[in-house]
């Protein structure tokens, strides 16, 4: 078993949530304020340990076999497994942006939002006239 902090498609209601194979949510959590948070082409989010922002996510105690066989194979190649700090000082696994992808033109900095669902919701709203 391993604690994993999910902040994108693996969260409840997301397109990768089924990859958790029924693993129950432990709690909603927030990262420590030391990350940059990106939208990668509006397809998925990515954290990177090079900032001062906090990210909203969900914490799961995931069996390593589920991580290996289901969740990680479904993740995009721009992400890799890393260890992040949560707001309470504890550590958890998370998928993070690979350093080599940091300069990609597909990245939109959404650190100020810090929440993938809120960001997506803001993108779907019609413009105010």
Automatic annotation (TrEMBL):
<protein>
    <submittedName>
        <fullName>Gamma-glutamylcyclotransferase</fullName>
    </submittedName>
</protein>
<dbReference type="Pfam" id="PF21986">
    <property type="entry name" value="AH_C"/>
</dbReference>
<dbReference type="InterPro" id="IPR013024">
    <property type="entry name" value="GGCT-like"/>
</dbReference>
<dbReference type="InterPro" id="IPR036568">
    <property type="entry name" value="GGCT-like_sf"/>
</dbReference>
<dbReference type="InterPro" id="IPR053844">
    <property type="entry name" value="AH_C"/>
</dbReference>
<feature type="domain" description="Allophanate hydrolase C-terminal">
    <location>
        <begin position="4"/>
        <end position="120"/>
    </location>
</feature>
